[in-house]
Amino acid sequence: MPQDGTMDEKKKMSIREITEAIGSLYESMKALVSTSQESGEPMSGEDEEKYARMNTRLTDLIKMRDQHYRLLDAAANASRALDKNVEALSRDRKTGDQVGSKRGQALRDFLNTEEYRNAFSRYLTVGNDLRPDEARALSEGTDSAGGYLPAPEFLTTLVQYRWENNVFRQISNIIPLGTFETEVVIEGGTFPVATYENEAATKTPSDPNFANLVLTPRTMRCFTRVSNELIADAPTRGPQFNVEAILARQFGRVMGLKEEQSFGNGNGSAPNPKGFFAYTGGSEIGAIETAAKGVVTAADLQGVVAGLKRQYRDGAVWVMTDEMFWKIRAFLQVGTAGTAAGGNYAPFAWSLGDGRLQDGEPDRLLGFPVYCCATGAAPAFANGAVVAGFGNFANYFHIGEREGISIKVARETYLADNQTGYFAFARHTCAPSVYEAFKHLKIKAT
Question: Domains of the chain, with CATH numbers?
């Protein structure tokens, strides 16, 4: 490695080596800046070029580190998804009762074997035209719908892309659903009352109120077709062209985007889940309305934060579309920088550019993280529309998973087109458990 901390040639690095290289580069860059400050002169041209090279390499290393941690997160999520699949398959098919941990552990271990991975890979290539030993291997991972559980590597990639493309999966509480409808006991909004009393005074009891949150899973299907010629030629195109990996990425991406749209803006009419922005009834999530039509001010945003009870603000986040995020930025830019009009973007803190946040952190609005979803996952900006949400999703917005993702291959159906069909299935739903843990931002209607 050269003295400036950059590398003459790229090599495979462990996460420890990446972390150590980041620290070393930072100290080298700090030394250059300190030398310049002590001399009272700007860096020389040579030092400026060295600093620029180190800064470029530092950015690359930070990106590598973040990718490594995202992969670890995806692997952990895939492991949890596999556990849910195993739990579902370990139940008695007639009674639905769990039949014991030995069956579940044996199945979990088998799904991680090379035998099952090879059988699943062959299944994606040839469909049901499997050898007897491959068919026996896959039969262990058959779910209630007749599909096969993905092998761990396939599932890890799919879960990673689904997670990256669904902001609600990143911020919400995910729980397994044991039956067709699962009841979760929640706080009903009435709590015990604490008072000071004189000695021996009679105290009237105040009982908490509880309610049931019923989570009914909805079925999502994803379908794509691939040319049989492409599947046959894939091995000759090198490891970069892998039908298995391409399918995992595509299924994960489109399923994540569809989930995000439903978890945010679903209307709740079967077969769709009811999304966060659809809980707009008088007894559901309360809305803070802007002071004027067609505009959002810093005071409106402060009203949303102030409107959320203090006990729910710890861990609260903003959720809005990308378009709404930039629209709010544009609204707050009106006026001269530094004035009350907010031209200096005072309510915002950026992850890049102003040095107030670490790279990789979400942008912040009034000190709270902002998570942006895709167009369609929230109502479009219009007078009378709910355009953003604020609240404690990690504790009070739940995504229920009935079963993990399963895959089916259909070859004969599309034989005339010389194509193979691939189907992915998932069952889930979502719902808030405490309405007052959230607030909507609503544009004034009239």
Answer: 15-71 (no CATH), 162-189+207-239+259-446 (3.90.1690)
